[in-house]
Amino acid sequence: MLRRASAGLILCAAALGPGPAGAAPPAALDPPSAAPPARALVDATRTSIYLGSVRLTLSPLQLREGAFTADYAARVVPFLFFSEHGHFAIDFSGDQLARLLRGETVAFEGWARNSAGQERRITGRAVPEAAGAARGRIKVRVRVGRVELIFNSTYRLEPAP
């Protein structure tokens, strides 16, 4: 049986959604003199759940005080009464960001809180396409009761607008 908590976890986990099919070639950040990445952009994503699916949409993830933060909205189909919205944060230190930009895989942890105040833990890893690349893949795991939800997605880093 699906619970409201599971929908929220699904939302958090999918924080960094997959890119469109046939995505553009790897984008590189400008030379070192350019501004460092301050946000991550993601596309809406969808994952399957028992007898349905969850569609997640996110605001741009902003890098603030050692965490990428964003608001989320999740639509659970056909169980629309499980749909929710809220806020999440993925802890990401300056060292982790530097390692990611050097082309290293980086593990991370985070949390999410839905509008009802329920909090969940998330874990995952980011894998850049290459050293200096502003794009890469991300895997996010969310445990909902005895079920572990796994989301494979893509990310794109950008400097502050």
Model description:
- With 161 residues, this protein is mostly beta strands.
- It has one domain (4-159).
- The protein is 11% helix and 51% strand.
- The chain has two helices and ten strands, in the order H-E-E-E-E-E-E-H-E-E-E-E.
- The chain has helices at 4-13, 94-101, and strands at residues 37-41, 45-49, 52-58, 61-64, 67-77, 84-91, 106-114, 119-128, 135-144, 147-159.
- It has an eight-stranded antiparallel β-barrel.
What is the straight-line distance between the termini?
A: 43 Å
Approximately how much helix is present in the residues? Answer: 10-25%
How large is the radius of gyration? 15 Å
How many structural domains in the coordinates?
Answer: 1
**Contiguous runs where pLDDT drops below 50 for at least 5 residues:** 1-33
Instruction: Profile the largest sheet.
Output: 8 strands, antiparallel, barrel
Shape: globular
Q: Which class do the helix and strand fractions yield?
A: mainly beta
Number of helices: 2
Q: Would you count the extended β strands for me?
A: 10
